[in-house]
Task: structure prediction
Amino acid sequence: MVLSRVTHSIQEIENWDGSGHSRKVMQNEFINPALFVNNRQRLGSLMIPNSLAVVNSNDTPVTNADGSLALPPNSDLFYLSGVQQEQSILLLYPDAMDENHREILFLREPTPLAEIWEGRKLTKERARAETGIKTVEWLSTFPALFHRLMCESEHVYLNSNEHKRATIETETREARFVRDTQTRYPLHHYERLARLLHQIRVVKSDLEIELIRKACQITDDGFRRVLNFVKPGVNEREIEAEFAHEFIRQGGRFAYLPIIGSGRNACVLHYIENSERCAKGELILLDVAASFRNYNSDLTRTIPVSGKFSRRQKAVYKAVLSVLRASIAGLVPGKTVRTWQAEAEQLIERECVNLGLLTLRDIKRQNPDCRAVRKYFMHGLGHPIGLDVHDVGFTTQPMQAGWVMTVEPGIYIPEEKMAVRLENDVLLTENGPVDLMGQIPIEVDEIEALMNR
Ligand code: GLY
Ligand code: MN
Ligand code: MN
Result:
């Protein structure tokens, strides 16, 4: 196993078996563990001397009665280990005296009963192969070993959800761990692990970009299937089913709840009912994309129900497309997201004047803190994407090479019962932006041709 090399093709990732023998079914099916090894090395290089860090799985979300949802992988735990099994704990202590204590993965011990009900769990061997971590222990040994290492270490990195738009109403497994640890060890120096993880997760490695590209390719296939399928009278939910069929068939999932809004529904930014019939003459806004092995893509396309844009629809569409193109070109390292957004707003403002939505007078008299264009374009131009759709990262700081950003301008006109939004995912590099969705149909002629085949 060559764990230090981090540039592998998707083919190598797919063929990876972690042992050099025939491919086995694995939890993260075929992700090269070099991805996680590299991520741990990056984190370790930022930790202060003689410090340890702990990351926990998420809880399984409960619903009603005895119902529960599928366990959402903890993105930080996955980023550092590739583990997405319940009750897992990762402990990193790069300066530990004993080499075996520098990286320790604690797992729920498989029992025959759990395997009957829930299926196969990670064995120690499989966990070693998938994560590149040598020391794998059962969870029951955690308290004693943790106590010993806490007595050796000076600083402790604990994790919390520091996404600035997170709404946190229930206590997570991680938050319980933080509370218990601080109660038991009140005299340690605690540090915020999220500060470090946000810094490294936002800059993607080649292996991560391969996985995001794969998610984009599945999304592309789903969109082409839908272009073939849509006609007047279809229900929005039938379109959702077409995407689901293609994504799941290819080993992907919905990266987020799909937004499939025809006519006026397209003006509701978080429309997720997807339950109305699409009428001839309307546009449909499709904000639907796949994830692959937990890496996300995020796509929006807007298409005509009948397969042909009206003149007015085409004018609005072309306005948004030109802002998309300019905003992709504007993704350069060193610029702040705020400046990038302001540049796009200026462009959309001009397009809104050309479309007769705003007058020059509206603009002259506007309140600079609430610009007139916000009536027709009221959201952010884009966000980092990765293991989370709205990924972590310090977006007040200048953008860097290695960020993957969505670019999603739109014009929303409820009085005309229509909206157009277009969204692609773009990698920033020192040599200019790389559109990871450049192959997905977007030109008016292309969309019409594919819909009328
Ligand atoms: N699909 C979520 C977003 O565009 O941000
Ligand atoms: Mn989107
Ligand atoms: Mn987005």
In short: The chain is about 35% helix and 15% strand. Residues 206-451 form a domain with the Creatine Amidinohydrolase fold (CATH 3.90.230.10). Residues 206-229 form the longest helix (24 residues).
